[in-house]
From TrEMBL:
Recorded GO MF terms: DNA binding
Family in the record: Belongs to the 'phage' integrase family.
Keywords: DNA integration, DNA recombination, DNA-binding
Transmembrane segments: none
Protein name: Integrase/recombinase
Any Pfam family: Phage_integrase
Domain Tyr recombinase as annotated: residue spans: 171-362
Organism of origin: Caballeronia novacaledonica
GO BP annotations, alphabetical order: DNA integration; DNA recombination
Length: 373
């Protein structure tokens, strides 16, 4: 039973007036929504601002479960604040979206109350037919609970470790566009629906060609800088693995790659574009992810291509073509900037027969054809 207050009577529980301001004393440290610091004494407002403002801010504080330590919304918020700075803006934005979704759907749970079954029900309810998305959410939840264990001391086990994910096995993408389909999309990019030439078409073709020739991801091609071209090679440091393996690859400038570079430079001169990027928009900035995919989608529609072909398929098409031509698998792995050959196999969409030319002699005497002995 709480003892009777001797001071600050008439104020809400845990609220006092001190140094000319209303303060809330939290039972445990919580994130101050106005300073973003972990505190127990949280200033609500100045005394002269009045009780109406104090009650408004106190109501906000009590309603926001993400501010209450030990709740799932709070874990999601803490994970965003502590762990996402090292990721690229695009990845950070996606992780923030996923964390907010988890906070909303598991709002009534404390971190300690979440069991493997809780997550199983969550996955089945929202991602029953979306295996890849389900796996991504499990990955985020695993990271969150790892932080809850090691840094926040909110539990001793990770419920994600007990999950049965056999119903959510992901299948590798099997789509491999033909050269004819890519050629149609490239050509359609040059002319708009109105039949007039598009301003972005020629540069879009350069981006497509470079993606096919170098097998790099869309972000690393559209963000390619002139400064990365040096000494007869282009240095790529894949954004996706920059924080993990940190692997880089120097791709030698072949005549085909050089031709793409010169076309891009000619376009920049034509439109008087001053930019450090090799494939900029007319504003001098690199094309955004949305912008590039929008150009691809519109060109695909104008080309009347109905196949499920996306920009990233160019990477797999280039690797598969190289395998068809008998290129060394180690070289294919190097160009894809993979640390594992097994990962590279995912990008080769056909079973390529390996040719053996060893001259093996019999260790015994063959029979005489004339005598049969």
């Amino acid at each position: 039973m709480n003892r009777r207050r001797k001071h600050h009577r008439g104020l809400p529980r845990r609220v006092i007036v001190n140094h000319g301001a209303f303060y809330f004393f939290a039972p445990e440290p919580m994130r101050n929504p106005w300073t973003q610091e972990e505190q127990r004494w949280i200033k609500l407002c100045r005394f002269e601002e009045g009780e109406a403002v104090m009650y408004e801010r106190l109501g906000f504080l009590m309603k926001e479960k993400k501010l209450v330590s030990g709740t799932m919304p709070n874990l999601c918020e803490e994970w965003k604040q502590r762990k996402l700075a090292r990721y690229t803006p695009a990845v950070r934005k996606e992780y923030e979206r996923m964390a907010d979704f988890i906070a909303e759907k598991l709002e009534e749970f404390t971190v300690a109350d979440v069991k493997a079954r809780t997550i199983t029900v969550f996955l089945r309810k929202y991602f029953a037919e979306k295996n890849n998305t389900a796996q991504k959410y499990v990955n985020v939840l695993r990271k969150m609970f790892k932080m809850a264990i090691s840094e926040m001391g909110l539990r001793d086990d990770n419920p994600c470790d007990q999950l049965d994910l056999s119903d959510y096995e992901t299948k590798r993408r099997e789509v491999l566009p033909s050269h004819e389909v890519i050629a149609k999309i490239r050509e359609a990019a040059l002319t708009g629906k109105d039949g007039l030439p598009t301003e972005s078409g020629p540069m879009f073709q350069c981006i497509v060609d470079m993606a096919y020739l170098c097998w790099q991801r869309a972000i690393d091609v559209r963000m390619l800088r002139d400064a990365q071209i040096e000494g007869g090679a282009i240095r790529f440091k894949p954004t996706k693995t920059a924080k993990s393996s940190g692997k880089m690859v120097d791709i030698a400038i072949t005549p085909s790659i050089d031709a793409v570079i010169e076309r891009a430079k000619a376009i920049k001169r034509k439109y008087k574009i001053i930019s450090p990027y090799l494939f900029p928009s007319t504003k001098g900035t690199p094309y955004t992810k949305t912008g590039l995919h929008s150009m691809w989608r519109r060109a695909k529609e104008r080309a009347q291509v109905t196949d499920d072909v996306v920009f990233k398929d160019l990477r797999a098409l280039g690797a598969t073509d190289a395998a068809r031509q008998g290129k060394d698998k180690k070289q294919i792995q190097t160009r894809l900037a993979h640390t594992s050959g097994r990962t590279s196999e995912i990008y080769i969409k056909e079973v390529i027969a390996e040719r053996s030319e060893m001259d093996v002699a019999l260790p015994w005497s063959p029979p005489n054809i004339e005598t049969g002995n």
